[in-house]
Every structure is written in C-alpha cells, then in structure tokens.
Amino acid sequence: MSVVCMGEILIDFTALESGLPVGEVDRFQKNPGGAPANVAVAVRRLGAPSAFISQVGADPFGYYLAGVLEREGVDLRGLRFTDEARTMLAFVSLDATGDRSFSFYRHPSADMLLRAEDVAYEVIDEYDAFHFGSITLIGEPSKSATLAAAARARDAGKLVSYDPNLRLNLWPGEDAARAGLLLGLDYANVVKISEEEVRFLTGGDHVAALWRDSVQLIIVTHGPGGSTAYTRDFHVHVPGQAARAGGIDGAGDAFVGAALVCLLKRAAHRRLTFRQPEKLAAILHFANSVGALATTRRGAIPAMPTLRRARRLARTAG
User: What is the pLDDT of residues 8-31, one digit of tens each?
Assistant: First the structure.
C-alpha cells in the first residue's frame, strides 16, 4: 500500500478574497501545494507510506516545503535541492464565474530542471505504485526525467497512475498541451481526469479515445457531481458528497490519493479487471468523500483529510 509521487511542489499563495482574478486580489495566504506533492500527503494522511521525487530551490521556500513533507512523514530521499533556479510560486483565486485563476512564477523553476540521471530510481523500486502528473512534461529536462521514472515503474510491474492536469497557460499553445497530456497515457495503468480535461483532449465526452494498451482504468471526476470509473467492460457512476466548501485547491489530488490507497489495499492493481462493479463503486464513494473534505479548508496540502474524517463523511453519506 505504498505510493511514490513525482512532479512539481510549490508555494500556493491562495486568495483570501473571492470573485476576483489574481491580479485584483489584495490578500493572499501562503500554502504548500503542487498536485503530486498533494497526493503524497493525501496517501500519508490516509495511513499508507508515500515518497516524493522532485527538485526545489536551495532557498527559503524550498526548505519550507521540505519541512512540510517531512513533518507529514513523506519519504524525501528523492527530493533534491538546486542553486540553478528558485522554487515555483503560484497565485490562485476564484474568479467571478467560480473558476480558479492562476498566475505561475517558473521561468524556470527548480522542478523544471530535474534531469533523468538525478531521479532516485531506487525509491521507485521500493514502492508499490508510482503517480505522476503532466506539469513536468511541459519542457526539458523534467520531461525526460518524468518519462524515465514512469518507464522504470511500468517495467517493474508497479501500478502507474497518471493525472493529465491541464494548466493551459503553462504550455506554448493548445496543440502542445494536448500532445503533452496525451503522452503520459502511454505509461499509465490508472488515469484520473476531470470532465473538462476529457473535453479538451477529445473534443467531447469521448472517454474511449483515451484508452491505451497499458490503461486499464479511467476515472473521470465531475466536481460536486461525483465521479465515473470506466473499465474495458463497464462503467459505474457515484454521485458526489455534500461538504461545506471553504477552499479552492486539492480536491482532485485528495481523490487520487484515496483511490490509490483503496486500489492497493484491495490488491486490485494486479489485474484491474473489476468484475464486480459494486467494489469499484465503493472505491469511488470513499474517494468522493476524501475529495469533498479537501474543499472544506483553504490551501492544498493543509486541506488533505485524515482517514478518520474521510470515514466519518463516507458513513454519513451511506
């Protein structure tokens, strides 16, 4: 039941005012974040071992982020420090339409400069699952490092999880973003993707277009609407759970952490056939609960729920 995550880690400056684009916000709260790092913490808070592979700047923010993960009990043997670039920063708010508005400072950031030869492959070898996202696929050398790590996990028979996390303003254009996000599918067994990302990649709700030889399970998240899991033989939808929203980050990453812990606990990754839809529905139900709880607090890593809170909401929701 152990997961190693690889990708970006950063400081989220989260808006304390709602309904404004980032440039018009006056007050922000500093929070640790970064999708793969969020997943690593989610896994730990749900009671399973996790590790994190990345690179941060040898600067105050980089040391702060390392301290956050260390206090959470995340294995940091794969985290490097560099003087070549600074730790990534992001400013995030909810605009008037309810959508998240981002402004990133990464020109370049330390995570973008991680090289394939610097990856802690021995850490990948020790863990049961490998999770990665698409942000480090945007440019070199982090793209080659990420794909080399994913290939190592795939070839070793690990469960490989992928989140094609779309941040369009970080890519040179839509075509480059679409090609980059699709690239990660070739390495994955499990794909977690939002319905907006499905539309971006397929031009509609054509989940079938995302199947690759290695992919055995695709989970589409619908925000408050819950989630739908697709296997080669069937699909199952589970509605979302109500929670008092107070945050704007981390729900999808909390969902991923919960889904991975459940999959590994059931040893489902050995075949991923899921001949019993009710078992897959139970996994979605728990992951929906964890994702909902992550919206109740500000920040990403600070919002990752504990196992006790997640079980309480899951029981309340039936």
Answer: 999 999 888 888 888 889 999 999
Query: Is the model's pLDDT at 268 over the cut of 60?
Result: no
Sorted by where each starts, the structural domains of the chain and their CATH numbers stand as 3-316 (3.40.1190.20)
All residues at 6 or more sequence positions from 214 whose CB lies less than 8 Å from its CB, including other chains:
154, 160, 185, 186, 187, 188, 189
Residues 186 and 155: beta-carbon distance below 8 Å: no
| Secondary structure (3-state) at 105 | strand
Q: Residue 37 in contact with residue 165, Cβ under 8 Å?
A: no
Q: How far is CA 128 from CA 50, 269, 277, in A?
A: 10, 10, 24
Alpha-carbon span 153 to 184, nearest angstrom: 13
In DSSP terms, 190 is beta-bridged to 161, 217
**Residues whose CB is less than 8 angstroms from the CB of residue 170 and which lie 6 or more positions away in sequence, other chains included:** 104, 106, 135, 138
pLDDT digits (tens, 9 = 90+) for 26-54: 999 999 999 999 999 999 999 999 999 99
d(CA 106, CA 2): 30
